[in-house]
Amino acid sequence: MSVTEPMPADTRTPTDEPTPGEPGSVLLPGHDVPLGRYTTVRRLLPHRRRRMIGAWCFVDHFGPDDVTGRPGMQVPPHPHIGLQTVTWLVEGTIRHRDSLGNDQLIRPGQLNLMTSGRGIAHSEQSPPDRPAVMHGLQLWVALPDDARADPPAFDHHPTVPGWRDGDLAVAVLVGELAGVRAPARAYSPLLGAQLHLPTGGAGRLPLRPDFEYGVLAMSGRAEVDGVELAPGTLLYLGTDRTELTVSGAAPDTRLVLLGGEPFESPLVMWWNFVGRSHEEIVEAREDWMAGRRFGTVAADDSASLPAPDMPGVRLKPRDRHGRF
Is the pTM here over 0.90, yes or no? Predict the structure, then answer.
């Protein structure tokens, strides 16, 4: 998925941050961002109050949208560096094509994981025979220094592991939860899991105190840590927690739990690139515009997305708190 604005925008909220090292929560509302001509997403990370959760550095929630008689998602070929894209659908179908030659339909319950390494290009489009409704997530994971220059890779997982405990059905997308490990490749200690309460009710999950966590609401109505969550909001939970109770106050309450060790490397995020310096971003932009490094999405004949102009100021790395 492409960022259509030159720099991922921050949203503002008056809520105070939790004290570092203590349990606490910060509610982060999303803001609408157009994705191409036909799709609008709710961007939840990066946020002015919380730029990352572990290595998760970018979260878009889209839908549920009725795409009957409409093009649906139409994101032309575009580049990435320094990150992994994680795509998870609840409803709908998306066709992924990339410069490694992969051509993959993703459907609900399947996980697409693309590792950009030093550079990859891809496109994401709703196929002509798509279902009527589209609803899902795309997330970015920042790669650590020892993986940023690796060759690009792509993985499609037709199923993900999980379990059910009373009211709660859990699907582990990335990492490990309650002894269940996902097959998705990860380069830092990380967790991503869908929490589904089909008929409401509640469930309890074990957490790692060295991880920081957040819970994203996709559908229904939920209560987490005493906070009511509406769809399209993200609750940051901090660190030092050993368990979490989630409650659904409506049928089909669906949440996503994100977690990971705090990511300490400052990042430069600009357009579709995650780097460490202004010079690295400039080089990636120049390579994309000159047709170098990223390859060609051969199965997609749509025009590639041009990179925006660089800003008139020098890009500075920010840490996970947003500090320069």
Answer: yes
